[in-house]
Amino acid sequence: MDDGASRKNHEDAAAGHTPPPPPEPSAAEKTQPTSEGIDTSPSRRSDQPLRLDSETWDIESISPMAALRMLIGALQDLADTMGDVPPTPPVSRPTTPRMGAENQPRRTSSPTLNGSMSIGSPEAHAHEPTYIEHDTATEDDFLQRTAIARRFFSKTAPSFDVRDYLLRVHRFCPHSSGVYLAAAAYCHRLCVADLLVPATDRTVHRLSLAAIRVAAKALEDNKWTQDRMAGVGGVSKRQLMNLEVSLCFLLDFDLGVDGKSLARRMFLLQQAGRHGLGAQSKLDGGFRLKLPLRRRVNTVA
User: pLDDT tens across 136-170, in order?
Assistant: First the structure.
C-alpha cells in the first residue's frame, strides 16, 4: 500500500514534473557573478600579496593568506629600516617577596602546540604596570608610556623571523583577511603614525601577535581560545593578556575600522617599510615614544 509521499511522486511524474535535485553543500561556496559581472567568491581571491602604489585598492580581491603576507612583508621591511631600538629602563617598584617562593618551580614557557615557537622572555617584568592611572597624581607620562611599550620588547630577538612566526600562527589559528588588515592598521598607528612602539626584530613578534588577537576579538564572532592562541604564539596566557591590554591602551581603545581605513593603513605601512619614516631612516636614535595624555573628567552627579 503506497503512502502519501509515494502517491504524490507518481502524480508529479504523471503530470510531467520532476522533483528538484538534492542539495549540494559544495554549491553553497560557489557564488554567481554580480550585476557588474564581478565574482567575489573566496575561491577567486588571489593568494599573491599586493605591492600597493595607492591607498585606493580592493580589499575584497585578496585571500587571508595574501593579507597575511602583506602584513609580514610590511613589518619585516619596517624592522629592517628601523634597526634596533633598545627599550628604556624598567619602571617598577620593589615587591614584597613571598615566603617559600624561592623553593617553588619557575614556569619558563607557555603550553605548546606541536613544538610552539617560543618568542623568549619579555623585557618587562611581570610586576611592571600595564595600565595608565587617570588621576592628577599620575606619574610623568614618559614613565607611563614606557611601562606599556616595554611589554612588546623581547630580551633578545627570536631565532626565527616574523614570516615563519606568523605563518605558523596562521597554520594553527587561521584568521580572515579583515583581521590581518586590521592588525596592519593597528601596527601602522603604533609604529609609524603615533611612534608609540618601534617595529624592530625584538618587538614585531609580540606586536603582531597582539594586533591579530585584538583584531579578531574586535571583528569576529568566533575566536580561537586563549589557551590555543597563547600556545601557538609561544607566550603564556598572562603574557598574551598583558599584550592585548597594552595594545588597547596605546590605541586609546579606538579599535574601529572600515574598508577605506584598512586599505589606506596597509598602503601606508608598506610605504613606511620601503622608504623609512621620512627623514628618520634608521631612526638615528631619534625614536621617541609618545602617548597622548588622558585625564579623568570629573562629572557632577
Answer: 444 556 567 667 888 898 888 888 999 999 999 99
Sign of the CA dihedral running 202, 205, 208, 212: negative
Residue with cell 617577596: 97
Buried/exposed 262-290: b ≥16 CB within 10 Å, e otherwise:
bbbbbbbbbbbbeebbeeeeebeeebebe
222-257 exposure pattern, b = at least 16 Cβ within 10 A, e = fewer: eebeeeebbbbbbbbeebbbbbbbbbbbbbeeebeb
User: Rounded distance, CA 254 to CA 256, Å?
Assistant: 6
CATH topology (fold) of 71-90+112-278+287-293: Cyclin A; domain 1 (1.10.472)
The pTM score is 0.70
pLDDT the model gives residue 85: 75
